[in-house]
Amino acid sequence: MTRYAVQTTDSQPLLHQHGRQIQEFGSVRQLPVGLSYDARMYSCERVNLLLADSQILYSLYKKHHWLMRGHTFYQLHLLLDKHAGEQLAIIDMLAERVQTLGGVAVGDPRHVAEMTRVPRPPNGAEEVPAMLSRLLEAHETILIDAHDAASRVAEMGDDGTNDLLVSNVIRTGELQTWFIAEHLVDTPAVRA
Predict the structure, then answer these.
(1) What is the pTM of this model?
(2) With contact defined as beta carbons under 8 Å apart, do 23 and 104 qualify?
């Protein structure tokens, strides 16, 4: 039986690498997207704030999805997971928009926690109405900022960011808010 010596130097991963930071957070590099430096910088700042808040909203959706209780458990468990998935898609779009404009998207959870304007929930499980109210308050924080940001970036000529904010962040957030709010309406289930 012949043994073959295996040469691994070409396929060995280069582990434990460290590199220099090649772009500072809060800066934008020049990309040929037809927008001024000021417009791109402003849009990146606003979108990064919405990105941080949306990442927290996503986390709240997942937490509440896991901790759901009571007679509406199944419906809310599924609804909150669906909403979390939709928020995850928005998070990706927001991050990619920052990158498209030449910025650096906020991605480190510790940095997100420093930037967010969404209040921190308790570490434990809350009653269902409190969890749903917390989601609505987070949505409202994001929606107020998204409406303002959409208007201001449009004034600066950034139609792409305006479209993203209106078509995705605002419309999805408003729809999710409606679905959650209806679970807090106290109506009889059997008799009128």
Answers:
(1) 0.92
(2) yes
Nearest Cα to 53, choosing from 130, 131, 135, 115?
115
Per-residue tokens: 87: 């928020």
Distance CA(69)–CA(183), nearest Å, equals 13
Three-class DSSP category at 94: helix
Rounded Cα gap, residues 124 and 102, in angstroms: 39
CA distance 21 to 86: 32
One-letter amino acid identity for 2? T
Mean pLDDT of 185-192: 86
The residue with tokens 């289930």 is 189
Distance spanning both ends of the chain, measured CA to CA: 85
Q: Write the DSSP symbol of residue 11.
A: T
Q: Return the residue matching tokens 């991963």.
A: 13
